[in-house]
Write a structure and sequence with these properties.
heterodimer, A: about 650 residues, alpha/beta, seven-stranded mixed barrel, six-stranded mixed β-sheet, 20 helices, B: about 625 residues, alpha+beta, extended, DNA repair (chain A), telomeric DNA binding (chain A), Ku_C_sf (chain A), EC 3.6.4.12 (chain A), hydrolase activity (chain A)
């Protein structure tokens, strides 16, 4: 049996009150099976439904009772069928009894494995635990839970329970409280974890869909000093689950080849610069390290001899106020330091330091070398993690901090140094205050979008698409599921609930496109740009710049800018909406060019514009020009022009002009 | 040419590396223009120390440090170092009072080399004898050293187009009134000429930046002359803070920070609500510095090698074009994906930052972290009004101790992020933390591991520390307190050593530099009696009086053997006894070993601590080898 092989029995409540979230249950369970198909091919999965119309389980046949529980799939090695089953769960019309279902699940596991496979068996219950369970034949419900916990413990079965309650209409609070207590009793008496979720989005993230066997980064002493040491084990607490690495596909294999891999291998050859045909063998290659323009060759043996070789060990440098370490300096994924399992002294020592740090709001600074032979040291901050569960020891989180070389000390202006036109006034500040206060994602400790229960939308989509493609190879990438959109976009329900706050915020602040900057193709920022002020500024800027006497450069710059501005206006115009603005600008430009004796600039520009746009839907713009007497500049107006009055008037009708 | 082959295998990692490396589409050419007038050599701080600190020293120090950082990080940038107000002259234009500093094998404006850095750091020692210092602008002479200096700098920066290269002149001086010593028409004339020269330089796309050094009691007044040269107006002047400090180190610090050119990663849109969408720039203020890319060389010629990549079909061995189709094995089938489909899957948002709402800061746990954070700062460049909204939200978030939860829909790595507002923090050495928001990348549920649950005690509570034990721990933490700890006070010893070695090799030095590892605990401090006592008290309180003795006992018990080791020992003894009853040399000599049973052969092997695995032949040959036959 594979070392990390596990067996899971999914106990899914399909009763009437669960119908609204069943599609998410389907998708999270099929994700579990899909990942097993890829990462744990020999894992086994069974599926039991409760709350079904029918009854079909062995216990019912053997001893009676256990109604409305159907064993949909016996425990067996994962396959594609399991995904199909899970994607098409039947909807039941009865209230399932989750304690009964747990017993059925345990029965399946015991019948399959007997006393073997301890610790690798899991029951995963998804229910809303909203209806009362049946009273047992003898004893209390609590006694029953105790007996079951005992059984789970002897057989090394763990229970993961996800309680889903979206909204609570006319629910019987007393019943739910009783059920919750019963479930909590499992977590005290057996290895069980109870998770409550209140949205379909969190449901997708509540179940660990992939089993990763935990590996310690370090086992050994946390050295407070050379005489006082605490035995700890260090694991990764967070580690990014990456997008799967896909293989490159080759279609060269003949279709008859049954064992074709279709893979593409990538081969690297190192060739000498002088002789491009000569391949340099690996033993003749040497690493070169850049140092400015120089490249310093060093062989790995030489490097090994001189490089930095710190001793393995985790040492305390000292404690410091937590406020000395700002949150944004955390550099990497996070480690967790747990006291050596079973070592009571270590557990107490860690607990004492963690609680002292928590009380005094301190952090500890450590220097870590995880392995012998590691080429660098890690400096990081240790933070207390006080356990909220009685049977889990206290531990520490550890975050890596940057070295001097890792920080760029860019200087930024103080906000207070900005001109008053950039500062919010009192009213605007109040609008912002209200927005920050009201748009609350954690009202009365009911936090939504907790990282711990938020699935990765990209991975969800990939695995969904993978399954789809296995059935329809030409399927399109499906749109993002509604529950996943709650992660990538603001929740319309929340936003509409606080509509007045948001509207007030929008009303108080005004945004406009910077006219001095060239257009940005995206006009996403605001529905209607404030056209009036933009037009004004364009012309104003131009006139201001033309008026500057300190350098002749300003005139040519002003003309150039204005030309660009007009071109932008026209390029972005839709159905003539920018014509009036463009004309206003052209009038100003024309006037300026006459004043500054730059008629050729204007004429050349106008003709260029005409040439460029005459055959497009902007052609009607030029008709407008003559009606506004926006002609070329004639010799009569500016002596430098080589356009006669006649020619000027005829524009744009007659355009074969020289200039 | 300098491909790191390992890096190429993973497609996803390409985008990763984009995150860690800044975009440097533009090279930078910098001329460091350092005033070398006698005023720069005046003592800025009269200390009891034998060597007085000078402004000149501070300037050289800053430049050396910046070159050092540059040779590691951005070695394609080119620099020139140029002194003015010197006795000697050395420049192409043969202008008086300007000395362009350079070393062998290097153009005047070129990439920094190990030699340049080394010689620059020693330049002060023989500055007076080799280059000399004097006032360049004095009455009665029409010489204008500042004008000359700008001209030389501009000429140095002639190469490269202003479009692809950012060109800067960094001017270090402590003289706020360079034309103070002359009067009348000559003065106005010289000022006009200098300003015109500066303007022409700026018109060529070269930016001039001033790094003023001032005396503690006499602030550098930028409005006397330099404001006009730099083109500062109104508000800009008041914003232009001269670097002055009680301590010269603080000033060096400020100068060093100001020498950096801020490089933004990109400009992104931040959609706040409905149709309100502002613009912010993102900056990578914290990224791990790695020892740089390697390149492969031919060990015979030491010339770089060209890396060629080819794709080979694993089934037929045929050379193929780089494929555009990928696949993933699934349910014993091959599921193909086009590049287009893959990018569509990843593309779940529009590249903007979307505000989702706000949460109290304590919802951001210590384990909610994956990668270094990114800094965001508003810009009004395209959307006027962005800064105002940003400031308003920033203030409210600080006031209510909340962070913003947002979705950053970047195309290659869309992620949930926490935006944490950071207020400006300043100290005597200038800005310590800039005002703005830090974008912290949050993990998803798949990224978080519930490790602590692995060792859950069943039906028993985990032991917890008692109040007394906690009190002892508190006392201990008060004892070993790092009062002024600041993040990143340590240099990375591995990197320091790496570049120390490279520098030594590049300069052809034999001796490898010793690098001090600053990260080691302060043993001396830890052995102070107060700390030792606190440690001892804590130890007794959590471990009990006889901990070391108990540990030693358990270690000894382990050594003398558990069940298994005792058994193993017994077996070895039997084997040795049995083995002694055979004449192995004789058996081997006569080829009789093969007549013995495997069990008998194993006696010999066990007795001589040899492996006992393998077939009979293997055992025999092992015995023969051991006997030396």
């Amino acid at each position: 049996m594979a070392r990390n092989k596990e067996a899971v029995v999914l106990l899914l409540d399909v009763g009437p009150s669960m119908h609204s979230v069943l599609s998410e249950v389907e998708s999270v369970c099929s994700m579990l099976v899909q990942k097993k198909l890829i990462f744990g091919k020999s894992d086994e999965v069974g599926v039991v439904l409760l709350g079904t119309d029918d009854t079909c389980n062995e216990l019912q046949k053997e001893v009676g009772g256990y109604e409305h529980i159907v064993v949909l799939r016996n425990i067996s090695v994962v396959d594609g069928n399991a995904v199909d089953f899970l994607q098409n769960l039947p909807r039941g019309n009865f209230r399932g009894d989750f304690i009964d279902a747990i017993v059925v699940g345990i029965d399946l596991l015991i019948k399959k494995f007997g006393p073997t496979n301890k610790g690798k068996q899991r029951i995963c219950l998804m229910t809303d635990a909203r209806y009362p369970i049946k009273a047992p034949y003898e004893g209390t419900k609590e006694d029953q839970v105790n007996t079951i916990s005992q059984m789970m413990q002897t057989h090394g079965i763990r229970l993961d329970c996800i309680v889903i309650r979206e909204k609570l209409p006319e629910a019987d609070l007393r019943v739910m409280e009783e059920n919750d207590n019963l479930l909590d009793q499992f977590s005290r008496k057996a290895i069980a974890k109870i998770v409550h979720v209140d949205s379909s989005t969190s449901l997708l993230g509540a179940l660990k869909t992939r089993n990763i066997s935990p590996v310690t980064v370090f086992r050994g002493d946390l050295e407070l000093s050379s005489t006082m040491k605490i035995k700890v084990w260090v694991y990764k607490k967070t580690s990014e689950e990456k997008f799967p690495t896909l293989k490159k596909y080759s279609d060269k294999a003949p279709s008859s080849d049954k064992f074709a891999t279709y893979e593409v291998k990538v081969d690297y050859e190192y060739k000498s610069m002088e002789d491009p045909d000569k391949v340099v063998p690996p033993e003749q290659r040497i690493r070169g390290y850049r140092y400015g323009p120089q490249v310093v060759p060093i062989s790995s043996a030489e490097w090994e001899a001189v490089k930095f070789k710190p001793e393995k060990g985790v040492k305390l440098l000292g404690f410091t106020d937590a406020s000395n370490i700002l949150r944004h300096y955390y550099m990497k994924d996070v480690y967790i330091f747990v006291p050596e399992p079973g070592n009571k002294k270590a557990i107490v020592a860690v607990s004492a330091i963690a609680r002292a740090m928590k009380d005094m709001n301190k952090s500890a600074i450590l220097r870590c070398v995880w392995r012998q032979g590691q080429g660098n040291v890690v400096i990081g901050v240790l933070r207390p993690n006080i356990s909220s569960v009685d049977n889990i020891p206290d531990s520490f989180y550890f975050n890596v901090l940057p070295f001097v070389e890792d920080v760029r000390e860019f200087q930024f202006p103080s906000f207070s140094s900005f001109p008053s036109s950039w500062q919010p006034n009192e009213q605007q500040q109040e609008a912002a205050d209200n927005l920050v206060k009201m748009l609350d994602l954690a009202p009365s400790s009911k936090e939504v979008l907790q990282p711990d229960y938020t699935p990765n939308p990209v991975l969800e989509r990939f695995y969904h698409f993978l399954e789809l493609k296995s059935k329809q190879p030409d399927a399109d990438v499906p749109p993002l599921d509604g529950s996943l959109k709650r992660i990538t976009e603001p929740n319309p329900a929340v936003f509409s609930h606080h509509k007045s706050v948001i509207d007030n915020f929008c009303k108080n602040f005004e945004l406009k496109e910077n006219p001095k900057k060239k257009k940005s193709s995206k006009r996403a920022w605001r529905g209607k740009p404030s056209t009036f002020s933009e037009k004004e500024e364009g012309v104003d800027d131009f006139e201001a710049m033309m008026a500057r006497r300190d350098s002749s450069k300003w005139v040519s710059k002003a003309i150039k800018d204005m030309q660009n501005h007009v071109s932008d206006l026209l390029e972005n115009s839709y159905d003539g909406d920018a014509y009036s603005k463009a004309i206003e600008c052209l009038v100003a430009l024309r006037k300026g060019c006459i004043l500054e004796q730059e008629p050729k600039e204007f004429n050349r520009y106008l003709l260029g514009l005409y040439e460029k746009w005459k055959d497009t839907d902007l052609a009607n713009f030029f008709e407008l020009l003559s009606s506004k007497s926006l002609t070329l500049i004639s010799q009569k107006e500016a002596s430098d022009s080589n356009v006669t009055e006649e020619e000027a008037k005829n524009f744009p009708v007659k355009t074969e002009l020289k200039f | 040419m300098d491909l790191d082959p390992e890096g190429l295998f993973r497609d996803d990692s390409d985008s990763e590396s984009e995150f860690y490396r800044e975009k440097d589409s533009t090279k930078e050419f910098v001329v460091y223009l350092v005033d070398a007038s006698p005023k720069m050599f005046g003592a800025a701080r009269s200390d009891e120390d034998e060597k007085p600190e000078t402004h000149f020293h501070a300037a050289i120090n800053c430049i050396s440090q910046s070159l050092m950082a540059q040779i590691i990080g951005r070695s394609y940038d080119e620099v020139a170092v140029c002194f003015f107000n010197t006795k000697e002259k050395k420049n192409l234009q043969d202008l008086n009072g300007v000395y362009v500093f350079n070393v062998m094998d290097r153009e005047c404006l070129d990439r920094p080399t190990a030699r340049l850095i080394k010689e620059l750091s020693y330049v002060e020692d023989r500055f007076m004898s080799n280059i000399g210092s004097r006032y360049g602008i004095v009455s009665g002479s029409r010489e204008n050293s500042l004008y000359n200096a700008l001209w030389v700098a501009q000429a140095l920066l002639r190469k490269g187009s202003a479009k692809s290269v950012s060109k800067r002149i960094l001017l270090f001086t402590n003289e706020d009134d360079p034309f103070g010593s002359i009067t009348g028409a000559t003065k106005t004339d010289m000022i006009r000429m200098t300003l015109q020269r500066a303007k022409d330089t700026q018109d060529l796309g070269i930016s001039i930046e001033l790094l003023p050094l001032s005396w503690p009691d006499e602030e550098f007044n930028v409005s006397i002359f330099y404001a006009e040269l730099l083109g500062l107006e109104g508000d800009d002047i008041s914003q232009f803070l001269p670097s002055a400090g009680e301590i010269l180190e603080d000033m060096t610090d400020q100068l060093r920070k100001r020498m950096f050119k801020k490089r933004k990663v990109k400009t992104i849109r931040f959609s706040i609500a409905n149709d309100i969408c502002i613009e912010v720039n993102t900056y990578a203020l914290i990224r791990p510095t790695s020892p740089g890319q390697i390149m492969w060389l031919d060990s015979v010629t030491n010339l770089p090698l060209k890396t060629e990549r080819s794709f080979i079909c694993a089934d037929t061995g045929a050379l193929v074009q780089e494929p555009h189709t990928y696949f993933h094995p699934y349910k014993n089938e091959i599921i193909k994906f086009s590049m287009d489909e893959l990018s569509k899957i990843k593309n779940i948002s529009d590249g903007q930052l979307h505000l989702l709402g706000f949460k109290p800061l304590d919802c951001l746990k210590d384990y909610h972290n994956l990668r270094p954070s990114t800094f965001i700062f508003p810009t009004d460049e395209e959307i006027v009004g962005s800064t105002r909204i940003f400031i308003a939200l920033h203030r409210s978030m600080l006031r209510f101790q909340r962070f913003a939860l947002a979705f950053y829909g970047s195309l290659y790595h869309p992620q949930l992020v926490a935006l944490v507002a950071q207020d400006e923090i300043t100290s005597s050495s200038g800005q310590v933390e800039p005002p703005g928001m830090h974008m912290i990348y949050l993990p998803y549920s798949d990224d978080i591991r519930h490790v602590e649950e692995l060792h859950m005690a069943v039906d028993a509570n985990a032991p917890r520390a008692t109040d007394d034990q906690i009190k002892k721990a508190s006392a201990l933490s008060r004892r070993i307190d790092l009062k002024d700890f600041s993040v990143c006070q340590f240099a990375n010893p591995a990197l320091q050593r790496h570049y120390g070695i490279l520098q030594a090799l590049a300069l052809g030095e034999d001796e490898m530099p010793e690098i001090k590892d600053e990260t080691l605990p302060d043993e001396e401090g830890l052995s102070r009696p107060g700390i030792v006592r606190a440690l001892q008290e804590f130890k007794i309180s959590v471990y009990g009086e006889n901990h070391d003795q108990e540990e030693a006992n358990t270690a000894a018990a382990k050594g003398s053997g558990s069940e298994a080791s005792r058994k193993r020992k017994a077996m070895a003894e039997t084997a040795a006894r049995e083995s002694a009853s055979y004449d192995w040399a004789d058996l081997a000599e006569n080829g009789k070993l093969k007549d013995l049973t495997v069990v008998e052969l194993k006696y010999y092997l066990t007795a001589h601590n040899l492996p006992v695995t393998g077939k009979k032949e293997a055992l025999i040959s092992r015995i023969l080898t051991h006997l030396g036959k």
